[in-house]
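User: Okay, second chain of the day. Same drill as before: sequence in, structure tokens out.
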Amino acid sequence: IGPVAVWDCALSVLSMGELEVETVARPKHGLVLRTLHGTNLGTLSEDGSSIDSLVSIEPTRLDIIYSENGSTMLCVEGETESICVIRDPETGKLIHELAKSEPGMPEARVSHVALSPSGQYALTWCRRSPDPRGNLTVFDTKSGSLVAVFNQKVFDAEHWPSIEFSDDESLAIRVSGQNINIYEGCKFSETPTSRISVSDIHSASLAKGPTPQKLGVFVLGKKGQPSKMSLMTLDGSVLSSQSSFRADDCIFKWSPTGKAVLAMTSTTTDATGKSYYGESVLYYMCGDLNRDQRVDLPKEGPVHDVQWAPDGRGFVVVYGYMPARATLFSAACEPLFDFGTGSRNVVSFSPGGRFLALAGFGNLAGRVEFWDKKTRTLVGESSMSCTTAFSWSPCSRFFLSATTFPRLRVDNCYKVFKHNGELLYEKQLGTDHVYQAKFRPAPASKFEDRPASPKRENAPLGNGSGRMIDLSSVVGTKKSEPYRPPGMRDRPAAFSLHEKAEARPVDARTFRASGKSNDKYVPPKTQKVIPGAEYLLEESTKPSKNAAKNRKKKEAKKAAAVSADAPEEPNGNGNAEIVSSSAHGKVNSEQPQQKVEANPAEAAQKRLKALNKKMRQISSLKEDKQAGKALDPDQIAKIGQESDIQAEINKVEAELKTLSC
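Assistant: Same drill. Structure tokens below.
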């Protein structure tokens, strides 16, 4: 058979020796689309060009979340009250109702929800709970029963969920007061299995991966003490720690293997005054004191984002003032590859870990670069302006971006891109609002790892409209350039507004100094003279009248000081002659200057005054001793010097009488 483009196929040899193409059935990619008029559960077509099998459910969804494996779907819904329900992720059928208020009780208002990794447990938090026992509840999603209730007055979105589970859900932790409560087997209804007491604890995080798990603990500094980030075992032993005076908060990002953690600290204010959003620093901790370190980054500025690869074999950091740099590190925190600079503040790995997206969302233009981590090549780029939500498909071949309400009230839409930046599908909602759009998660092990596909010729560009632009029809257009004087048009620019860096492999020994630019503007040593205007250059370099006057005053003052300190030499008449610096040229700075002697009578008067002061102090000490006050050894020794000081006073007084005669 001739060359055929097939989405997913396998070749098998028939008995007759001919080749046959068999389509391999792959799991479909589920999506959830929550709009103003309802919530739809759909599936993406194999080529990503359409969304099929839309299942519509009631339009009262307030939030929808999935477990990490996509087996459980938790919805927050209701009109008069906000309750949680468990629905089938494919059909949307109601399974259980959670956190529903009892008849006669105040209405429940659930604010935040979370699911455990496999979806066995659901967490809900509300500001005012109808349950008098507390406002943080734990439910069993399989049976819909209430497991435990806790009281949590203060909510921190950066550290939600308040209860963290291990990957196999055999262990859970919760910070309460100054203690870390550990629940083995997730038995929340019983007393904690163990408890670790940490003074002034701010937050704690449980490691991912297999047992034995580790803990990341952040202690906020106070009263001149630094903040501390510690790596601990479940029995409370400290493996390693880092301290910093510039840390008001800390977020722990664990490696999927649980062997290392990245602690990103931040402050509310910037001591240098260069940023309104404070400072941020990244630390690497693995329990080995020889490898624990602060991640030194060559470009000055904040740490925008950091993400581990799904397989745990390295991480990517986006850092520095715009245009920001992005660097790939190994699992041992060694720099491997630099992605250059660009307008980016987000890094996102595909579930399979092969591709990663470097994007500039939020207040940036929305440019997205797609890279192949294995080959370290740029496979494509696209423009996704005004993106507020995004997600990867479980197969790592599609990327979904959406403009949602209420972040933006106009131009709400959602788009599907290929892993190389090619726009496949776009849906504009017009006056309708998009509240939520994302892929349903699925285990990445169900999909094979495949390299990047080449872009189709004349592929649509992700320019916001999805229309294909043919530049061949544009005639006589030329990219506008800034004005340059005629004398500089054939020369390279002396400087640029931004330090542009290209993608390249990096060496760990020279990585720290790689942020220093060699293309900075250097002013010329000599000023260029325009023919016929030499007098203007002379006037510009000539000092002003005030400057010349001040310089003469300084020179005269300096000459007078040198003359006063100059040695006296006898002349031919036997009289002393002052030798000035002008007679001998430059004064030798190595010769010590002779100090001018003061009047002997004045010196004796000063000495007598100091001695009389000591006598007054001795008299005061003698009075204290008579009053019964305890004296230290130095004060007793000073009283014993009274006779010597009196003899010295008599000697000085006699000397003064001699000088006055």
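Residues 268 and 277 are 6 Å apart (CA to CA).

User: Thanks, on to the next one.
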